[in-house]
C-alpha cells in the first residue's frame, strides 16, 4: 500500500527520496508494507502545538505517532476486517527539532530514518512508559535497524537507546 510523505514546513530543506527508500525497507522488515502509512514533516512551532494538544507538553519534540489501530500489543500486526482498515496511522516528524539535535558527525537523513522507525514502532503498539516496555521497544528498534543497516550499509542505532 502507500507511503505518503508530506512536507508541511519550510525551515529545513528536505529530500524525501532517502527517507522514503529507508522507510520502505523498514516496512518490509516489519512485514507491514501492505498497510498505508503517513509521514508528515513539521517545524518546531507546529510540532509543539500538536504536542501541547495531545501530550500536554508545550515544547517541540522529534516524533509524534498517531496509530490507526489503537490498543495493539507490542509488535502485533493489525488484522483489518475491511480494506479501508489497511492503515497504520501517521508519524509526525519535528524535522527542525531533529536537525537542531543532530550531533556534528551524524547524517541528518540517518537520524530521520531512526526517528521514523521509532515512530513506526509506536504505531505497532510499542511504548516506553516503563523499563520493561522500553526494553521491548529498544530490542525491536535495534533488530529492525540492524537489518536495515545490513541492507543499506548504514550504521544506525535506536532512538530509545538511552531512555532507562
TrEMBL record:
SUPFAM superfamilies: Metalloproteases ('zincins'), catalytic domain. The keyword Nuclease applies. It holds the Pfam family YbeY. GO terms for molecular function: metal ion binding; metalloendopeptidase activity; RNA endonuclease activity. The keyword Membrane does not apply. Gene3D superfamilies: Metalloproteases ('zincins'), catalytic domain. Keywords: Endonuclease, Hydrolase, Metal-binding, Nuclease, Zinc. One of its GO terms (cellular component) is nucleus. InterPro entries: MetalPrtase_cat_dom_sf_prd (IPR023091), YbeY (IPR002036), YbeY_CS (IPR020549). Belongs to the endoribonuclease YbeY family. This is Endoribonuclease YbeY isoform X1.
Amino acid at each position: 500500500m502507500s507511503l505518503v510523505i508530506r512536507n508541511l514546513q519550510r525551515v529545513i530543506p528536505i529530500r524525501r527520496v532517502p527517507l522514503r527508500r529507508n522507510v520502505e525497507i523498514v516496512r518490509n522488515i516489519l512485514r507491514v508494507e501492505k498497510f498505508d502509512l503517513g509521514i508528515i514533516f513539521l517545524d518546531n512551532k507546529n510540532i509543539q502545538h500538536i504536542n501541547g494538544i495531545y501530550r500536554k507538553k508545550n515544547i517541540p519534540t522529534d516524533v509524534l505517532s498517531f496509530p490507526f489501530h489503537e490498543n495493539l500489543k507490542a509488535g502485533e500486526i493489525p488484522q483489518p476486517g475491511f480494506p479501508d482498515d489497511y492503515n497504520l496511522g501517521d508519524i509526525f516528524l519535528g524535522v527542525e527539532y531533529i536537525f537542531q539535535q543532530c550531533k556534528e558527525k551524524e547524517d541528518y537523513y540517518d537520524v530521520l530514518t531512526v526517528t521514523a522507525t521509532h515512530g513506526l514502532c509506536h504505531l505497532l503498539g510499542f511504548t516506553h512508559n516503563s523499563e520493561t516496555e522500553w526494553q521491548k521497544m529498544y530490542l525491536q528498534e535495534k533488530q529492525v535497524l540492524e537489518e536495515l543497516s545490513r541492507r543499506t550499509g548504514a550504521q544506525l542505532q535506536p532512538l530509545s537507546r538511552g531512555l532507562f
